[in-house]
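Example: UDP-glucose 6-dehydrogenase.
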Amino acid sequence: MTAFPIRNICCIGAGYVGGPTMAVIADRCPQIQVNVVDLNEARIAAWNDLDLSKLPVYEPGLDAVVDRARGRNLTFSTQVDAAIAAADMVFISVNTPTKTKGLGAGQASDLRWVEACARQVAQSAQGHTIVVEKSTLPVRTAEVVRSILEAAQRQAVDGELPISFSVLSNPEFLAEGTAIRDLESPDRVLIGGENPVAIQSLAEIYGHWVPVEKILLTNLWSSELSKLTANAFLAQRISSINSVAALCEHTGADVREVARAIGSDSRIGSKFLEAGPGFGGSCFQKDILNLVYLCRHFGLPDVADYWENVVALNTWQQHRISRLVVQKLFGTVTGKRLALLGFAFKADTNDTREAPAIRIAHDLLEEGAQLAIYDPKVDPQQIAFDLQLAASSPPDVQAGPTRAALSGEGTWWSGTSVADTVAGADAALILTEWHEFRQLDWVALAPLMRQPAWVFDARAVVDPEAVKSSGLMLWRVGDGAV
Ligand code: UDX
Ligand code: ADP
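Written out as structure tokens, the predicted fold is:
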């Protein structure tokens, strides 16, 4: 079968998905012009910054890929209509957050940005355009996109070319922090659609670097549902291991030993069994809630409840950790300094969407704690935005409690290193598994803290013996033996 020749791609949305995905396509297909567009001027300016450390998305290896392709066949701009008009293929990679109000609030995806994109494509596209859903979308969104596009199709008139569309679903499975590796050697690429020629055109693009047996073709609905299901299964494993971690802490078992024991059963497998402060990120919670909404919509309340509990357990795990910190610190953290090490939802990303640190910090601020927060990649302005609280200036470690501390008001400030973050603190909470937290010299850090002091290791990254020999007390997620 002959595919449509694809010479020009437009990607709408220069976020965590659109930016890295298009950079890799441009890198691997130098003959295709790839134009990434976004309404957000600041974001586009950052993608065009000559200083590659200023790219708006932090991903290991992304700078090198962008450096090779940018200016050659990869551009970033705010010229959305012109890029759509020039494109043979348009990827929709815009945000689809959970709705905050109206029908389905708290569960359904807010599709206003996808719909706006579809309308813009309908208005500006020329000739035949293949429209690819890249954003994670609720099942049957392609129908919405397709009906908008179909209404804009027209036969050739007055010497102008006919206008027509094909819609494909091509969900992205990259995980943040390993996006470039996941894009360069994916476990699979999924393409759902009805028009075999359009499917072939997209498959040929991936075929430049992905082996053909890894390119799976399905119908549109299976493709959309597979993405939600993959994320729901992964999240379910995390809630399962976190539920067992709580039990381990009461029984003297160690969740890592349990994970190793069950993970060596090839039917279970060893990945995604790390207990921690619960899953964060832009996908897991949103996608499960989406699934829950769909199940209720289709009259399957028991199936909806089943999946909803995966999210409920995750929320419980985060509150459990904050409760535990309060309990160990003699039942109160009011006015106490606590060091939060890590704010991103996982290591190797600057993304804080749904980060467990947000809920845990909120709980502790509510209790009147004074939080020093350090993350090697997260901008303090982002922390202020997530906590909905402006930063205070760091108090003098030697001085007594600040007035805010005495009044029981929770405050936070941004640390610039682990040492200045833990200074004067009663406890250090490790919430992100950054590499540098694995190598901390607790013997040197302990004297900076107010004794008796604790290390709460929600990611199990410290060496328990090293912490204990520094005289600090230790809680480690899922460890009933410490
Ligand atoms: C996820 C999916 O992995 C990816 O396929 C999809 O495209 C988008 O959603 P992402 O959210 O970027 O990717 O990161 P992931 O590595 O899956 O981690 C999600 C959360 O689960 C993080 O907060 C992480 O810390 C947590 N996690 C992961 C655990 O707590 N334990 C584990 O064993 C694995
Ligand atoms: P994701 O993690 O799915 O990539 P992000 O929020 O990081 O999500 O990125 C989505 C991007 O899409 C944002 O930069 C936003 O400005 C952009 N966007 C949303 N709607 C439109 C639109 N109609 N046209 C162009 N860009 C859009």
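The chain has a mean pLDDT of 94.
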